[in-house]
Amino acid sequence: MDKDVCINRVLRDMKLQGLISEEANGEVKIYLNAVWVAGYEHKTKELGYLHRKGVIQYDANWKEIRRFEGIKVASIKVRCDNLTIERAIKSGKLTRKRHYWKLAEDEKGNDRDINSRGEGKAD
Prior knowledge:
There is one protein chain. The chain is mainly α. The protein has five helices and three strands; from the N terminus they run H-H-E-E-H-H-E-H. It has a three-stranded antiparallel beta sheet. A hairpin with a 5-residue loop joins strand 1 and strand 2. The termini are far apart. 14% of the residues are buried.
């Protein structure tokens, strides 16, 4: 959702519930913009961290399948969305294609054993 649309909807709802007056609209909008930016910056840092790390693909029995240079490379090779892999890493749950995903550094404390093409040897 667009930032301005979201902020305007929150303002509208706050007015309808009687939480703010029409005169306070401008002041509250400044604070809502600040909250949006803070949330955006936090998410950007979090995603940047995830995308810089190597990832490991496992089957449903936690047997390692492949290693990738990062989430973007993995999503292209496996033909799925980046968000699918991000969610699987965060949640620790199986994806629809029946894979588990982990950050390479979680596995061995580093991600040096990933080759330059982003793949490791498949078992």
